[in-house]
Write a structure and sequence with these properties.
Blueprint lengths: L1 H5 L12 H8 L3 H13 L3 E3 L5 E3 L20 E2 L14 H13 L11 H13 L7 E4 L2 H12 L5 E6 L3 H9 L3 E8 L2 E2 L1 H9 L4 E5 L12 H12 L5 E5 L19 E7 L1 H4 L6 E5 L1 H13 L6 H12 L5 H21 L11 E5 L3 H10 L2 E2 L1 E2 L10 E5 L8 H12 L1 H7 L1
Parallel strand pairs: 3-13, 5-6, 5-8, 8-9, 9-10
Antiparallel strand pairs: 1-2, 4-11, 6-7, 10-11, 12-15, 14-15
Helix pairs in contact: 2-3, 4-12, 6-11, 8-9, 13-15, 14-15, 15-16
Length: about 425
């Protein structure tokens, strides 16, 4: 079945034969078919709805949301990929050279601690400055690596996870791939909407995912009042696993409003990808003792540790303050605000409180993306980030210059039709 899905022979949403009928057709025991269906469900390929039977998931785990993007032909400006501005990334030459020299003086061998003492101290101090409770620190190969291991350490196939909608497409792929069930929670500029979060918690979710700042794709950031509301809600569900994603650290000047400690099991993950470049694969995480212990145990059974060369390089960048969050946030903020103003002048509503993305609600994603391509602009279709939320497009501003704002805003308005945009608003 997985091969058939990959080949396009089985389509998303297609109903599968009842297991007894399939057993007769294949001349096997019904328990064999039931076991196969169960395995497919656990791997995020199919979903079962009681008497309504089993069907291929609308987006099977074998179908990445990265496939939902426009191909950028030559000559078209790319505002779709979500990458940081290379001009705002620090040079890694000095940091990597220092790390290599340190490794020469003291090679890292089997049996040494998984986390570098210097990096651990710097990470812990930064977490404490941001109001995160003092807790153990670990290191992962990026945010998604950390989140996957934490989810796998606490949850079992079939458990429900509250996720932001719209939210990070890779996370929306990961959850069904682990056999978990995503439960969408709406987001406004201040973060997850409390009423939606309360409904998800009351429905029995076993974990909650929250992006603290620079939420992808909307740019939402937890405000003080919203953080307090969510903490109150979560405190009534102490057994729920809380995972916070602070990938905006280093590129956002808004203060962190952590929820850490609102539940018994929690983790806050802080990636270096946006501040130092996606290829510097490292994320520091902190959390309750049980969660971090489980994370470390699963990590030891896999890669064992994150390269100390990378850890030393990141520690060097942190020590030397290689990135000024205020300067980077200011650069992205100028581009976001300019684009949002230019769109508003043309009757197009848009969102983007922090980070490097602007979210534009549209009535027809496919049409908007296609028309923008013809106008010379590639943007990301909202289907990469949505579950139940209304259609939209994501525009990454990191590659825009001041002279790009007006032409891009005009192209977006033209793609939607200004009159159409005003009716939609």
């Amino acid at each position: 079945m997985e091969r058939a899905i990959g080949a396009g022979e089985l389509q998303p949403g297609e109903v599968l034969p009842p297991l007894r009928e399939l057993a007769v057709y294949l001349e096997v025991n019904p328990n064999t078919v039931a076991a196969a269906y169960r395995t497919l469900r656990d791997r995020g390929v199919i979903e079962t709805a009681g008497r309504r039977g089993s069907r291929i998931r609308p987006r099977p785990a074998s179908t990445s949301r990265e496939a939902l993007q426009a191909v950028v032909p030559p000559g078209v400006r790319n505002a779709a990929d979500g990458n940081p501005d290379p001009a705002l990334l620090p040079s890694l030459e000095e940091a990597l050279a220092e790390a290599a020299a340190r490794n020469t003086r003291r090679p890292v061998l089997y049996g040494m601690p998984a986390i570098d003492d210097d990096l651990e101290a710097l990470a812990r101090a930064a977490f404490l400055r941001d109001g995160v409770p003092e807790s153990p620190v670990a290191v992962a190969s990026g945010s998604l690596d950390a989140i996957e291991r934490v989810l796998a350490a606490h949850l079992r196939p079939g458990d429900a996870v509250a996720v932001e909608d719209p939210g990070w497409g890779s996370l929306l792929d990961l959850i069904p791939a682990l056999g978990l069930r995503p439960v969408p929670v709406g987001v406004d500029d201040d973060g997850p909407i409390p009423a939606r979060m309360a409904a998800a918690l009351d429905s029995g979710v076993r974990a909650v995912m929250v992006t603290d700042r620079a939420q992808n794709p909307t740019g939402a950031a937890l405000s003080g009042p919203r953080s307090a509301e969510l903490r109150t809600l979560l405190s009534g569900h102490r057994d729920v696993l809380l995972i916070e994603d602070d990938h905006g650290h280093g590129i956002v000047d808004l203060p962190l409003r952590p929820l850490a400690g609102a539940t018994d099991h929690w983790v806050l993950v802080r990636s270096t990808a946006k501040a130092y470049g996606p290829d510097l694969r490292l994320a520091a995480l902190t959390g309750d003792t049980v969660t971090i212990d489980r994370f470390r145990g699963r990590q030891r059974l896999g890669p064992g540790w994150v390269s100390h060369l990378i850890q030393h390089a990141v520690a060097h960048l942190w020590r030397t303050s290689a990135v000024s969050p205020a300067a980077v946030a200011g650069a992205y903020g100028e581009r976001r605000d300019a684009l949002i103003r230019a769109l508003a002048e043309r009757g197009v509503r848009a969102r983007g409180r922090s980070g490097m993305n602007v979210w534009v609600p549209v009535p027809d994603e496919t049409g908007a993306v296609s028309r923008l391509l013809h106008s010379g602009w590639a943007v990301a279709p909202g289907a990469r980030f949505r579950m139940q939320s209304p259609p939209g497009i994501r525009i990454t501003v990191s590659g825009l210059a001041a002279d790009d704002i007006t032409p891009l805003a005009a192209a977006v308005a033209g793609a939607m039709g200004v009159g159409e945009a005003r009716r939609y608003e």
